[in-house]
Protein 1
Amino acid sequence: MKIKILPILAILATLFCACDKVLDRPSPTEAEDAKYWTSAEKVRLYANGFYIHYFEGYGTGWTHNSAPLLDYTFDDNVVHMSTQGQFTRSVPTSTGWGDNYEWIRKVNVMIDRIDNRMTDILTQEEYGHWMGIARLFRGLEYARLVNSYGDVPYYDHEVNNTEKDELYKDRTPRSVVMDNVYDDFEYAFANIRLNDGSQYINRYVAAALICRWALIEGSWQKYYYNNTSRAAKFFDMAVSCGDFIIGSGKYDIVLDFRSLFSSSDLTSSKDVILYRKYDPAQGVTHCVASYCNLSEPRAYGPNLDLIKAFICTDGKDWQTSNLDDTDDFSLENLVKTRDSRFEASFYHKLIATSKSCYLYPVKFISRDASAPLTIEEGEVKGGAVDVQYTSTNNTNGYPVLRYAEVLLNWIEAKAELETLGQGVVNQSDIDVSINKIRSRPIAEEAQRLGVRETAPMDLSSLPNDPARDADVPALLWEIRRERRMEFVFEFSRIIDLRRWKKLEYMDTDANDDLLTGTWVNFPAECSAQLKSDNVGKLRIKTKDGEFVSYDGTNGARMVGFFYPKENLGRLPFLNVPNINPYLTPVGSNTIVDYSNKGYKLTQTEGWPDASN
Amino acid sequence: MLAKSYYTTRHNTTLLPTIMISILYKTLLLPGILVAATPSMTGRETGLVAEHATTAAIQQITSIRGRVVDQNGEPVIGAGVFQQGTRNGTVTDPSGNFTIDVPSGASLQVSCMGYEDVTVTASNGMLIILKEDSEILSEVVVVGYGAQRRADITGSVASVDVGKTLESRPIADVGRGLQGAVAGMNVRVPTGEVGSDPIIKIRGQIGSISGGSSPLILLDNVEIPSIQLVNPDDIESITVLKDAASAAIYGSKAAFGVVLITTKTGTGGPKLRVTYSNNFSLQNPAREINIGGIEALQYTYDAQVNRESPMPAGGFWRINAESLEKAREWQRLYGDTVAWNDPVVYGRDWYFDGIDKYGYRIYDGFKAMVREWAPTMTHNLSVSGSEGGNSFNVGLGVLDQSGMTKPAPIDDFKRYNASISFTSEVNKYLTVRGSAMYSDRNKRYPGVGTTTADPWLYLYRWSPLFPMGVMERDHYLQEPAYELMASNTDNLRNRYFNLNLGTTIHIMDNWDFQLDYTYDRQMTDQNSSAVYYNAGENWYNPIAWVENGSQVYVNERGEIVDSSTEGSMPAYTFNVRRYLNSNNTEKSDYVRNYSRNVDNNTINAFTTYRLSLGQGKQHDFKFMLGTNIVTSSWSSYKIRKNGLIEPENPQFALASGEQFIEGTDRDWAGRIGFFGRINYSFAGRYFLEANLRRDGSHKFPTDLQWKWFPAFSGGWIFTKEAFMEPVRNVMSFGKIRASWGSVGDQTVSSSLYKSVLANGQSNWLDANGKVTTYGTPSLVDADITWQMIETLDFGADLRFWDDRLGLSFDWYRRDTKNMIIPGESLPSTLGASAPRGNYGNLRTNGWELTLDFSHRFQSGLGINMTATLADATTMITKGADWATPWEDRLLSTDYSTGRRYGDIYGYVTDRLFQRDDFVYGDDGKIVRENVIYRGTLRSTNKQNTPNPVYQVEFENGDKLVCAPGDVKFVDIDGDGYISSGSGTNGNPGDRVVIGNTTPRYEYSLRLGADWKGFDVSVFLQGIGKRKIWGSGQLAIPGWNAKEGALPKTFTTDYWYEHYDSEGNLTDYNYDAFYPRAWDLGGSNTGFTMQTQSKYLLNMAYLRIKNITVGYTLPRKLLKRIHLEQARAYVSLENFFTFDKLRGLPIDPEAISGYSMFSTNYNLGRTGTGTPMFKSTSLGLQLTF
């Protein structure tokens, strides 16, 4: 029996000894925070996570949060067939900034690890670059936050879940937040590499971003907070960033307008500072161009107010232009007499698929896309859109930062400084910025349609636009017009209106052009639409403001601005008690939650505290 | 029947190791081995044997021949025939005959599982009739590392009657068969997808929030990845360990119960025993899928009108007043003549106005997509035998099941099983054994390029105007039925094999040692491809129909006419194009392979020592000590290559495009447990058991790696007490028992214990393609430790009237202590969700009741019944917000302290607003008034009552304003507003608990009868109570009216008023169940369709799971054709369902977003998966 027990004991003993080997099995593939921060390359891989967030471009697949055309339909450029988009009219229950703070946490962790775990690992240059990248991202996120909420709780370090007092702290004043952002931006601008390889942030990218956000903050300070010294501080920053980029000579305006948005690879173009590239082989495609394919019916389109804002090719507004017939709003004439960006942004023929206005945005699709289509009498009469312009098959890339924007930011900041009595804008400044953009090449197809280059701006004879607001100097008025033409359906218009404190431009009660479409001569241009199906549906507004609805027999009278009955105005939002359209309220439940825990979160100014 | 397949005596069966038992049973079949084997089983008797042997020696020995039959005269195979009080014995052969050498006049004891023991005086040529033993107390039940007589069990252990539960049923796997089989084990089959696993939970739906809450499934003591891989025909026994006391021996993976499956081993004797069974079934959808037709178009149209949105209504295929009229006319003109699959014709079926397409014809997606009468078959063959000390068993099984997809070239599931086992007794001290098993499951399905949003979604997504299953002229259209048809076949193949080697060493009569080593490998191989389709593009705008360079004109009937003909119109057609579902650029068609291999090594070693002490050896002890070591490693990869050279033959070698490694993974795991158990029983009346296990798991940081788990249980058979003597003729058996145990749970993710940066790829492209990213390090709670599951169980097992009626009851309380849950919700300024920690406690209270009855009448008619009823509710006794005062705890906190798990907060529906609820002005329109709500001025409709209740919280003051036909809620707090309050317990506004998502009161009933070879059984299963707020278009009225697919239930019972062009009311439905048509734009709540009492889905159901009628041929007849047994049966599975879903096409077992491939399947929408099916089947069971 002993003999039998021995082997058993031997087996058991072996098993016991093996315990450590069995249990010591760390994951071979998982990245643990404690062991991750070992090289500059690791920092890069961590930083890669920010790119899609800050440079979304056209989005991916059907997913988009800040894509041109699809996510920027709430401003004074766009008319929606139906009620126009509404401003927030009551305090929501929850607060929308959770996403922003996730990015702030991510970047604060990055700063912490670089500072505390990598000082012996990174060279001084690497340290400066990656710390600069981190502080750039942090500055960007806070800049976005204050742009929405004004004052926001500010954290410059990773906050642990146990630090209740920190987590529940009340808002930090905007000025304090933005002074920190200013410092972050300065550091980033001083330390980020001039070149970190294609598609990675370098000092020019940083400068372009800082230029953008400094201009935005400067304007808020000037117009909303009436704080000229803070305004000057940020305008100065915008100007110096612009100076750096312009002075580098690396960038230029050499592409025609539409090519900027419809090309497949502009990663090394002089017009583009940072580019989001798409590649179907990698499965990275988008859907924005599909909404520009003419075949796709669109409920959103450009309104008459935007059309009227386009400058004429002689450099004057349509009312004071010296060209003939600038009050002839027929599409054919608009194409010939307006700035080349008009033709590049909108299809040159009327088309009923743009349901609210008959003018179809094509800014983000290749000119080739419409080639197979036969378009007559306002309809697509034959041919089909190529597959790559449908669904999520779009492959054109997006210039997430372009030189033209830097030029317009820079000249605006300079002009604003001038109004604050700091420096002057001279003709050479206009020449390197606005006139540089105006002299951009015109596509061959456009030239064939009669599109001509707009005359250069002359500081000494600025247009005297009767539509100009009395409180806006003529130069700034024209700079703002340039922005509007340049950035149609891109990110900036609603941000611009807020920072200029000009949300009244969106008041549909005050300006019927906001709800009006383009000029349509139905019998001449869209006779196919004069059919029994459309009786009672088509409506135009004549130059005299008279409405004519199609009744089946009055086709000849259907000449005027297209204005379907469904185009309805937005609810009042100005001077309404407890509504501040400029800043976003925090949620009522969030405020209650803070107070239940013994803390206070102040409601955004102009909004009521939670009650009821 | 299981019970007849092996033999045991009454008193040999206290705790024996699992595998040993089966071996011993087999070896017992041969008298020669009997002598050697018996002592090791019951040491207590060895003394007796010696005494009798001495007496026997002086008596005359004669050879007695006899036959053992049952009450029907059928031979009883494998019955044990013993000379009373000795080890001298034999077993009956397949004809029931036996021969035994005994002293003349000796008493013979005859016993067989399932029959009552008989003692008779030996006489040659005797016929012994065994009475069927109705009670199951003597049955030996497999428990953790051992076996116990049912009567002696002190934990909460249920054994499944494998014969009744699994045989004669057209089911693909054991899991589906176990539904309703055990009180307290809930099995859910959420989809009709063939090859998918059912969801098994023991005692309540949730035991842990971060962990799996799923039971450990062991096949011969080795964990298996899926219950599907087991061939139901290979199963010898299934035991379910429900409480911690019985499961604790398995350690930290057994926190939520254990399902123990043992496989068959060799039986039958020297003659080979061959059994063959088969089943042929036909599947049909279990419930009608009623999707709205014309009324659905009307609903979509009405929704557009109600929301004051511009016409036309509908997405892709539009609807306006004219087209709706045309659609009605179409039904009148062509409804009877145009077949469902006739081609689409322009002019007749649809119309394009230059901007939008309008449809007139209604298509039948169901006919196009769902396969009816889908065949399935199974075949099983097993061969076993034993001779000398050796026995073997070979099992072979085939399942060939069809899926429900009609257009797909192949949609099926096949499983092949093979198993072999042998046992060899080397000498009286040493037994060796080995087994191998192979399981090959192959699911083949149409490769549409995605498994997360498949064509079934599209069957239920778009309006009936979407052509489905039809062609246009000579080409197909881009629609689900075509794509299913034109796709290659993908497959998901899961192979599993294991090799087991083991030995039992009989160190002494009462001491043995067992060692088993198992190696198993799980291999997953998924092949998929995506090919270009070629079809008419009916999603976008059509193109002009041009033939030979000139425009084609058609008339209203779709006939080609001359352009000058009155009423002719230019015709359009769908642009035929080549496209790919995922990515439409050139060379994007691909072949993909996913492969995953898992290797496991399992060592189980334990030793058992028994001891009897005291006067009459009334004190019985059993000691057991053992170890269990499991190591695993796995790796996987997913690769893709674009550019198929031969699209119909997707091969990596035949692809010319870019290639990608889409993901790889590699990891390993290890677990060690040491365990011990002491059993003590006194006089067969009092039982005590203590278990202790120490577990170590690689998952945890070093300081948390090891943990102790204790468990105790005790029982008292009070009917054995003298004072119970008077009632014993009524209550023949009675036992009460109690148990407590604590088990740690290691099913939680190891990332909870360390801060990890998630690795991924960004869609930001640099010069080399997608860039690699690492995410924000996860927040980890500093004090995190194990979560423990404790179960307290009180039970009683009672039997009445000669054990004919049995009742078993359990009450339990399961506490999850230190449960890992998300921390208290913190302000979003944290920038991360609060890390999980041991902040929670969960308490599940439940009870289980099982009733069984069987009786055989003098006439030979036998009846039997088994019924179960179980319920469990779970309370969150401590949640992350425990420190927050009750009134400040948020309703939105999932696991809020004091809340019952699954509670749904919502508004209480009063009724629908009607016309006279509002005040009308002179213009006939409802008068508007302003109210101030939460500090904001709101414009709303003026109500015709002195005490209006405003619902402005759901309104926007513009078009979203409550009007006739909208839902009116009950103003619970009486403040004149329907509001969500501040979302806390203290101020919930008008929200109260309106239902619970937990399945409650699960019940089952099995009724059976047999008479003269005929048998019939009916099995019912149901859930008494369960409610959910659904998701998606099938569950929420108006969820996305624009997309258009709406269940008929909604479209025929919603509130509407229809007017003619002059504005006269022509039709109305004021008594509707559902509110006026609305378009929620793809949201599950919105406007007045808030989570509310009236529109919760009531998921309670009763299913007649199975009805079987069988006939066993008489043996006399069979003998002539050399058959031992033959039975034929007809079986109906899942045939009748009774539910309260008002005819919605949702199966009451459905779980929103659940599928075998994805946790957000078909966008998480309720009921949008493969339809559940019912089967009609025929089968045959033969034994040679």
Note: Chain B touches chain A through 109 residues (CB under 8 Å).
Protein 2
Amino acid sequence: MKALTALVIAMALAAFVAAAAQQQPAPASSAQAAKNWTPARTPDGQPDLQGIWTNYTSTPFEVPDKSDTPDIYSGDLDGRGRGTGPSSFLTDTSDRKLTKARSLVVDPPSGRVPIMPWAEDVRNYKLAHIQDDWVNFTPWERCITRGVPGGIFPAGYGSGYQILQGPGYVAIVYEMIHEARVIPTDGRPHLGPSFRLWNGDSRGRWEGNTLVVDITGYNDKGTVATNVATQRVRAIPQSEQLHAVERFTRVDENTIDYEVTIEDPKVFTAPWKVAMPLHREPDYQLFEYACHEGNRAVPNTLSGGRAKDREARLVSPKPGGGGAASAR
Amino acid sequence: MRTSHLFLAALLGVLAAGPPLAAHHSFAAEFDGSRPVTLKGTVTKMEWTNPHAWLHVDVKGPDGKVVEWMIEGGAPNALLRRGWNRESVARGTAIVIQGFRARDGSNRASGGDVTLPDGKKLFIGSTGTGAPGDRQDAGGKK
């Protein structure tokens, strides 16, 4: 018991130290850090971003606030679950990294995404009525996509990304959910407003050692983020006016600084920015994630909702309707 | 002693605090956290499918009738990294599973700890689903 107590105290102290570290000011800008290090070049002269990268982090997406309602964000329909879920320190993400920022959202400085109230209302309605209709699921739960840029936000598992480069292209393979992006860097223009895609239309260019990717041409069916790890931003709708600009800068052998600025004047009152590191992990293997193969959650969830409907009819039969028992 | 336990519980609470991580879907929409179930049975099949693995188990009811149950696990890549492999629960293995029943009352459950014949425990569930007790997953640590 003594040994266990000592171990627990040591672990708690480590956690406090880590938490304190998160309160420190953000590190110097990626551009400044990159100055002291020159990345290798691919045979055709691009800065070399290739390799296997992971996005494990213990930093929350947003700075928490007392107005947060994690039960709603996680779809805890009746308050029986705990809502937010635990840290995964003890499981498959035990090698997660700590960053020095207090949230992945770095702009606005409050660490809070400036979401318009109507968009939060849509999120709340859909998450509370997920048992009613498949359209209320996020595109991730439907195995369509985790989105761009949402697919690179940490989810806690399936956290591998492989970057490959060829003349005029950068390709990113996402372990979750088995997605691949092919980003042209040859200066071609966007597809134009008649094309509306779940993940928009990515166009890359090099600014020094930084890969800058401009994304437009979204449809209005997707959501900016899909995973509960993105907290309040999960299931926030996107409009056709969504515009994202990603920046990938390799700042040392083992780190890419990733940043994305997101604007959508129909959904957010101002642009906002996420910044986080991607860690090189050459030994990490990307496993196949054939999401649709066994996605029974959609029919099972809808079936759970129909069972609830039957229960409700049994409890309060409609007047003159002969009661619920005979309804089906 | 009681105080000491409370102290430990508080410290563990601190350790467990952190950003939420999630399974592919909402636990509460599909399963009922107020209906825990313990199943004793024999493994008939493990489906290594995404986004969730499914373990099939034949369970003998009080009337002697054998019923097949389907137990939802975590994503295959999460289970593999946690130490699971195709030999972990071979067909025919007698196991005990703790989980939570499906909301529609069918013979499905969200899985938690799986106890093997030698007493070893493996955690089959997803982490961070919001399921009650889904922190009790150290048994499956790689």
Note: The longest helix of chain B spans residues 2-16.
